[in-house]
Amino acid sequence: MGSIRLKETNDDEADILSTQWMEYAHIYLKNITPPYRSQILSELNEALSFQSYLGGNQITTADKAVFRSLRHIMEQLTFQEKEKYLHLSRWCNIMQNEVESSRMIQFSRSLLY
User: What are phi and psi of 83, to 5 degrees?
Assistant: First the structure.
């Protein structure tokens, strides 16, 4: 499990990254267990620290798949834990608006409105 670092991606690279993240979701997020949760969240946080989405600058099907797999974990995190994974939390907040969802994950203690 390592992070992928590409500054700018072309279409072929974006497709490859998307495929890799789909595999990542299938292997690591499908049955995530508490001993590995922190490591996986840290890896995702690091991957999102230098780009907006997992595939680069555009949302992909991999972003949606990873978010759907990760959603239940993000709902369980405390506000302090969400702050620890700041880039991941930012991405999840964006993704929950992109992926149709009936309930929203709260990322801030104080609602703006």
Answer: -70, -30
In this structure, which amino acid lies at residue 60?
A: T
Rounded-to-10 torsion of CA 76, 81, 87, 92 = 10
74-107 pLDDT, tens digit per residue, is 998 999 999 999 999 999 999 998 877 667 887 7
What is the CB neighbour count within 10 angstroms for residue 113?
Answer: 2
Q: Map residue 22 onto helix, strand or coil.
A: helix
Look up residue 8 and give its amino acid.
Answer: E
Q: What is the pTM of this model?
A: 0.80
b/e map 11-26, b = 16+ CB within 10 Å: eeebeebbeebbebbe
**Distance between CA 92 and CA 68 in Å, rounded?**
10
Cα–Cα distance, 47 to 56 (Å, whole number): 10
